[in-house]
Amino acid sequence: MTALLSVRDMSRSFGGVAAVQSVDLDVDAGTIRAVIGPNGAGKTTLLDLVTGFTKPDSGSVEFKGDQLVGLSPRELPSRGLMRTFQSARLVPSLTVRENVMLGAYRFTRARFGSDAFRLARSRREEKELTVRADELIDFLDMRHFADTLAPALPAGAQRLVEVARGLAGAPDLLLLDEPAAGLDDSETRELADVLRAVRTGGISMVLIEHNMALVLAVSDRITVMDAGRVIAEGVPKDVRGDPAVRKAYLGVDQ
Ligand SMILES: Nc1ncnc2c1ncn2[C@@H]1O[C@H](COP(=O)(O)OP(=O)(O)OP(=O)(O)O)[C@@H](O)[C@H]1O
Known about the structure:
Helix 5 links the parallel strand 7 (173-177) and strand 8. A six-stranded mixed β-sheet has the order 6-7-8-3-9-10, sandwiched between helices. A four-stranded antiparallel β-sheet has the order 2-1-4-5, covered by helices on one side. By secondary structure, the protein is α/β, with parallel strands linked by helices. The longest helix has 25 residues, at 115-139. It folds into two domains: 1-80 and 171-187 and 194-243 and 250-254, 3-Layer(aba) Sandwich (Rossmann fold); 90-169, no CATH class. Helices cover 35% and strands 23% of the residues. Residues 5-252 form the ABC transporter domain. Keywords: ATP-binding, Nucleotide-binding, Transport. This is ABC transporter domain-containing protein. GO terms for molecular function: ATP binding; ATP hydrolysis activity. It comes from Gordonia phthalatica.
């Protein structure tokens, strides 16, 4: 089976720091791939390399058979790739619904055509986007927040809005950078249910996460990084028992 996403021999240094060194990463269609590792392991840099926010020193990224290296981040949503960020990047002057709608703008075509035509189309598209955003907001059980300005939300809820915005782009692959940061235990369990439902809906995911309960609950395969390198890869049961992982990630020597 060909992987949906295939990262090969990816490297990037910043000055003397080898943030990512010869990393391979595969994500099969319909699966969740977790990337874990201690602070500074290179997880976010890897995501930045895949999504064009950082240029690699060397390496390739194949997604649905196309090379992504050299593309700008803006080009990726229309190819079916969406991401979230480590700290929520919601637009503070917009409501939850409007923030979610932003994720779906790749579906709008109103910028083409004559003015009158454009206006009519833009109204219709705005309505479609609203319906789409509300479906996702309902899916995340956040209808009571739909008209709230994003900064007024609790931190945990803001993370979920980021996830909803990513889903609004109807991606084939959603890259999630620490979606459980700031969530309490019950919110994290809800997030696990959401991610499983998203996978059932056919969307694959890369999950960068420190919360091991979430990682073990939802991941099909786990990649473990330390100091820029992959030190282990496999199904959760095997990775959890790997001595190198326990030493590097959990700080235990047995
Ligand atoms: N733009 C940059 N300039 C200089 N150094 C950088 C830059 N981005 C990342 N680094 C360094 O690269 C290394 C990997 O950082 P990265 O943020 O990818 O790790 P991480 O695994 O995501 O960590 P965390 O779990 O804390 O988010 C770190 O040593 C970091 O300081």
